[in-house]
Amino acid sequence: MRTRDNNKEELVKETAIKMIVKNGMEGFSMNKLAKECGISVATLYIYYKDRDGLIISIASEGGKMFNDALIKGFDPEASFEEGLRVQWQNRYQFNKQHPHLAMFFDQLRSSSYQKEFLSGFLQEFRQLMGKFMCNIIERGEIEEMPFESYWSIAYSPLYALARFDYEGRSHSGKPFVLTEEILWETFKRVVKGLKK
């Protein structure tokens, strides 16, 4: 039986992520992945049972990394603005350090893997965020609202900016690079929109 090669396994995961981001889930297969990596298809099956196993494994590992990034320095007792600032900083840094993985998550969210992907991680983060939300509502810092409404206002602008940055252009087609100045100016407007 052939043994696992950690470097080859990392190459497989990184290549799979890039291929899925570029071509979507429909255009992804183990045969195409093996060819892109310059290895045999049989080698892939040393690491993964099948295509689904590979995608779920990448999602699980990436999800743990994302969870760890989100909770870094996050205090559920913080004020609304400070807690949200930490979240923006953590999410911004994660997107900068792992741009392909962040776009891979977008692919998962609109695929048949969505339910399994979302249920498999962020447990610790959800607990901390739930406590944070209760605290800021109890202190009267923001209005009570459905979490989905809060998330849409609090984070959608950040993710739109990150996507423009990843693609290197805005909706108008003009070149775009996300700077700290643009990031934190947008953050100020989000805070202003959510604060009581």
UniProtKB/TrEMBL annotation:
<dbReference type="InterPro" id="IPR050624">
    <property type="entry name" value="HTH-type_Tx_Regulator"/>
</dbReference>
<feature type="DNA-binding region" description="H-T-H motif">
    <location>
        <begin position="29"/>
        <end position="48"/>
    </location>
</feature>
<dbReference type="GO" id="GO:0003677">
    <property type="term" value="F:DNA binding"/>
</dbReference>
<dbReference type="Pfam" id="PF00440">
    <property type="entry name" value="TetR_N"/>
</dbReference>
<dbReference type="InterPro" id="IPR009057">
    <property type="entry name" value="Homeodomain-like_sf"/>
</dbReference>
<keyword id="KW-0238">DNA-binding</keyword>
<protein>
    <submittedName>
        <fullName>TetR family transcriptional regulator</fullName>
    </submittedName>
</protein>
<dbReference type="InterPro" id="IPR001647">
    <property type="entry name" value="HTH_TetR"/>
</dbReference>
<feature type="domain" description="HTH tetR-type">
    <location>
        <begin position="6"/>
        <end position="66"/>
    </location>
</feature>
